[in-house]
Specification:
mainly beta; single chain; four-stranded antiparallel sheet; 36 strands
């Protein structure tokens, strides 16, 4: 750090006014941006239903639906409405097909939601289409659609609806297996399911086929399966991330996020765009990661979420990331170029100026100078600057040397 005479302050201020807009427009933003995302929360008192939410879909009109512990919630951007199942049970899973039909699963009930003659969405149960000895299946935990086919996954069966009849898929029965499904997943038009004491299975021609791997044990808990480029990422709660290739071969991915997933209980994952994924946890909010498994951002209750237990995520047509929470609903602009800072970021004093220099972010306040390093979520006070008032920051180039000019009440400092 170099000390400069205060008389060049006015020159710096003039240059700042001249070049500020150019420096802001031309600079490349972080991806994701530094600071905190803007989060919109909906508390149970707003949607007037029970706190837990389990799944989310959006129709072609932009109306959003939520599987809630009380009903299916419909939200048009202003008004909330409940669509109850026939037996008024919690709704753990919903899905929507290309024609806009919403399929829902509750406790010993499953069916679909379509508009009636007045345009009001109503639920129609399909329970009578099942064999009588298959109607006590407990909760439907996952629902998927694939063209004209719908899959309802319970702990004891997978029900496949073709629009007319159901096909029932039972768990594999072996000497070691207890015949209980955990969770099902859809990826690349294939249905995968984990079975306790058996491992990961894929459904082919209405037959469950075990995926064999020396790295993948029978008791691994899978919570998300997401296609990424040429492989499928298999997110487990107790063993990190695995790669599944097109030949159904599994191998350990050994990603940097592995330990975090085990520590914070992964619950869901989805792909945000070509380069980023969002991983939901049951206790630590969500982690935005890149394809290599590096953490780019952690969004949690300190950032404004109602709570850190995230049960489901959905990216809508406007790139809002909706979160179904254990207590409430939230949405985030996942591709935002605008973010904010608050008192939790440990920036003391009123902020007078913010700029980017050497790809890092700097803050001048009435209490000191702060720096946020590129790729870091931490903001640190720069101890080389005295605890006085600072008013402006200006990146300049002098004789091919890049400098950051920092204006205080009495002096100008130059940071190289």
């Amino acid at each position: 750090m170099t000390f400069y005479n205060r008389h060049i302050y006015f020159l710096c201020f003039s240059l700042f006014c001249l070049f500020f807009s150019q420096s802001v427009v031309g600079q490349e933003l972080f991806s994701p941006p530094p600071g905190r995302y803007t989060i919109c929360n909906f508390a149970p008192s707003e949607y007037k239903a029970l706190p837990p939410n389990w799944s989310i879909v959006q129709d072609q009109r932009g109306i959003t639906y939520f599987g809630n512990d009380e009903a299916v919630l419909e939200y048009d951007g202003q008004t909330w409405r409940k669509i109850t199942l026939s037996n008024n049970t919690p709704v753990k899973a919903i899905a929507i097909d290309s024609s806009g039909i919403i399929y829902a699963g509750g406790n010993n009930d499953l069916g679909y939601i379509v508009p009636d003659s007045t345009g009001k969405k109503t639920y129609h149960s399909l329970i009578s289409k099942l064999p009588e000895n298959k109607r006590e299946f407990g909760y439907v935990w996952k629902v998927f659609t694939n063209q004209s086919t719908v899959y309802f996954q319970t702990k004891t069966e997978i029900f496949i609806w073709d629009g007319t009849d159901f096909t029932v898929i039972n768990p594999l029965t072996t000497a070691e297996a207890n015949g209980t499904f955990h969770f099902a997943f859809q990826a690349n038009n294939n249905l995968y399911v984990t079975q306790l004491d058996t491992g990961l299975l894929v459904l082919k021609d209405d037959q469950l086929i075990p995926i064999q791997s020396q790295y993948f044990g029978k008791n691994i808990s899978v919570y998300a399966i997401v296609p990424v480029d040429e492989v499928i990422c298999v997110f487990t709660r107790n063993k990190g991330v695995y790669y599944l290739d097109s030949q159904n071969r599994l191998e350990k991915a050994n990603l940097p996020i592995d330990n975090l997933l085990q520590e914070h209980n992964v619950y869901h994952a989805l792909r945000l765009d070509e380069n980023r994924l969002s991983v939901a946890t049951y206790g630590a909010g969500i982690f935005i990661i890149d394809k290599a498994g590096n953490v780019l951002k952690n969004i949690n209750q300190q950032d404004g979420l109602l709570n850190d237990r995230v049960l489901y995520q959905y990216l809508d047509k406007d790139d809002h990331l909706w979160l179904a929470l254990q207590n409430g609903i939230a949405y985030i602009d996942a591709k935002a170029s605008l973010s904010f800072y608050n008192k939790l970021d440990s920036i003391e004093g009123t902020i007078q100026s913010v700029t980017r220099f050497s790809n890092h972010l700097f803050f001048a306040t009435l209490a000191g100078v702060y720096k946020q390093a590129n790729g870091s979520s931490n903001i640190e006070r720069m101890p080389q600057f005295p605890s006085i008032e600072y008013w402006d920051l200006l990146p300049v180039s002098i004789d091919n040397d890049s400098l950051l000019l920092v204006a205080s009440n009495t002096d100008i400092y130059a940071l190289t």
